[in-house]
């Protein structure tokens, strides 16, 4: 059997390796139009920022490695021009010699990846304007920095790559400005979590501009949509990626609703003997079952392995994605998985959310706070998504949430997880367990939560309400929500007569725990419409600090 794979980065080489493990007799050939193969794209920002000293560590495998270990022939600088499914042939150009020739296959795998989206902005062709998608891009950026020593950079877009490059440019001494056309950074996060990222960026002396776009790039400036001019010795376009589907489309391979190649769970396309994997394909979401496009290196490796297994008689099947992502921004970690609150609302879920602010381990062991946002379905109690911003231990918690959502856990299940505990690693009840407890209380035990946005809507609605600050008077005097009444938790039972039992009552404290205790008292005394402010004063103040900027 002759297997041809188009593309030799994460998915293509993973497919080849798995196919070889299954079949020693098959011929396996990979055509790659680039010069580098099987590289670690996620490490590129850290080479630009000199945290990684040797670029070779990002490209540890070359064609000779795959030939010696897997007996796979990889031809770099060979561009596949067309696919002829009826003849089971492809046409290839050798980019070194310009020779055009044909090859035949029994099984064909497309792992053509994705390319950076270059927005239609005048000036993107200047030599100081870059995108970062592959090793050649990385080398061009590094060579430019080493040759011209730019002092200022503008990064357009605030996704993972944009923020990682931002950190690394700042670390090598460049003043950096982030431009985002949306009203928040990190578009994948909900806005009430993105505020923490933006605050941290500003704390690190990064200039952040949201709700604005780039109109033009000149030799020394970036001109914004409001005609503001920013000095820019270097510009990075981090405005997303688009699947490379032109080859597939021309061959009659069906595309999905997201615009990427449509495949089934075995990575089969609509054409017999043609498979696809990696960043060029559409996936489906574990929670909803609906098509999504979430190009990530981890998914590319997984789908490549599945394709390689099935072309050699295996039966591996893809089980979907949750859109899990994690990145570092200076000394903070940002992670998410599953549906955001925004997505859950758009899909018609009756959503309950909580903001759980807890340390990753006890204070006496140097614990630092993490903010966990949990998103759940009020009707079924199923956990739908989670977002975390913190320091050490964020990766551990997000992976627990990933596992729970994948296996369709309900919020009450989180409390019953037998998680590892010792003071250097966790609190006795882990923040994951607390998140489950808060959501369980909200959904099943009548301890309703109100978000900062919900409180603002209540205040503006004209409906009568009582807002109780349950903290001590000293904390109230330092800062409080404008319409709040100070009734410390310790005095709430005494001053109960001051509360109109027919009104909506909202309690709050610094982060939510004492607010919940006050809520319990009021519910225990017969009040029917009592809410606790999710995340307390801390969460509410973050939202309003952002809105005042």
From TrEMBL:
GO terms for MF: oxidoreductase activity
Pfam families: Pyr_redox_2, Pyr_redox_dim, Rhodanese
Cofactor dependency: FAD
Keywords: FAD, Flavoprotein, Oxidoreductase, Redox-active center
Family designation: Belongs to the class-III pyridine nucleotide-disulfide oxidoreductase family.
Protein name: Uncharacterized protein
Source taxonomy: Bacteria, Bacillati, Bacillota, Clostridia, Lachnospirales
């Amino acid at each position: 059997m002759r297997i041809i794979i188009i593309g030799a980065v994460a998915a293509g080489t993973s497919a080849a390796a798995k196919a070889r493990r299954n079949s020693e007799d098959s011929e396996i050939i990979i055509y790659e139009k680039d010069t580098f193969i099987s590289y670690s794209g996620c490490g590129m920002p850290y080479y630009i920022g000199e945290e990684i000293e040797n670029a070779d560590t990002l490209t540890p495998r070359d064609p000779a490695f795959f030939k010696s270990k897997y007996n796979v022939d990889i031809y770099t600088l060979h561009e596949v021009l067309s696919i002829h499914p009826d003849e089971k042939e492809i046409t290839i150009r050798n980019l070194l010699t310009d020779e055009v020739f044909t090859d035949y296959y029994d099984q064909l795998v497309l792992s053509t990846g994705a390319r950076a989206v270059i927005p239609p902005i005048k000036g993107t062709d200047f030599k100081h304007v870059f995108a970062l998608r592959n090793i050649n891009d990385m080398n061009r950026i590094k060579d430019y920095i080493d040759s011209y020593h730019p002092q200022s950079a503008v990064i357009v877009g605030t996704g993972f790559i944009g923020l990682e490059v931002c950190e690394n440019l700042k670390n090598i001494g460049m003043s950096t400005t982030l431009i985002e056309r949306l009203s928040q950074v990190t578009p994948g996060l909900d806005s009430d979590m993105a505020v923490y990222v933006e605050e941290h960026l500003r704390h690190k002396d990064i200039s952040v501009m949201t709700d604005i776009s780039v109109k033009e790039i000149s030799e020394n400036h970036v001109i914004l949509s409001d005609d503001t001019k920013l000095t820019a010795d270097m510009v990075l376009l981090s405005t997303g990626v688009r699947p490379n589907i032109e080859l597939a489309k021309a061959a009659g391979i069906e595309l999905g609703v997201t615009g990427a190649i449509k495949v089934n769970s075995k990575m089969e396309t609509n054409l017999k003997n043609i498979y696809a994997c990696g960043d060029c394909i559409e996936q489906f979401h574990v929670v909803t079952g609906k098509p999504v496009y979430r190009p990530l290196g981890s998914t590319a490796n997984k789908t490549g392995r599945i394709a390689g297994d099935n072309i050699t008689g295996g039966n591996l099947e893809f089980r979907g994605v949750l859109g899990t992502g994690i990145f570092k921004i200076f000394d903070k970690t940002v992670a998410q998985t599953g549906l955001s609150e925004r997505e859950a609302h758009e899909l018609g879920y009756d959503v309950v959310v909580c903001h759980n602010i807890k340390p990753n381990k006890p204070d006496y062991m140097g614990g630092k706070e993490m903010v966990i946002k949990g998103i759940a379905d009020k009707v079924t109690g199923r956990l739908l998504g989670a977002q975390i911003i913190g320091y050490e231990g964020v990766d551990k918690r997000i992976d627990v949430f990933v596992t729970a959502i994948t296996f369709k856990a309900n919020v009450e299940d989180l409390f019953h997880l037998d998680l590892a505990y010792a003071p250097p690693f966790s609190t006795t009840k882990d923040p994951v367990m607390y998140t489950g407890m808060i959501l369980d209380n909200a959904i099943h035990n009548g301890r309703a939560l109100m978000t900062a946005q919900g409180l603002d809507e209540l205040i503006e609605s004209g409906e009568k309400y009582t807002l109780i600050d349950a903290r001590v008077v000293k904390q109230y005097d330092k800062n409080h929500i404008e319409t709040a009444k100070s009734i410390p938790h310790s005095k709430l039972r005494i001053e109960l007569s001051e509360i109109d039992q027919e009104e909506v009552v909202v309690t709050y404290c610094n982060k939510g725990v004492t607010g919940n205790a006050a809520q319990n008292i009021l519910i225990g005394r017969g009040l029917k419409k009592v809410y606790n402010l999710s995340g307390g004063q801390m969460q509410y103040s973050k939202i309003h600090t952002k809105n005042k900027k």
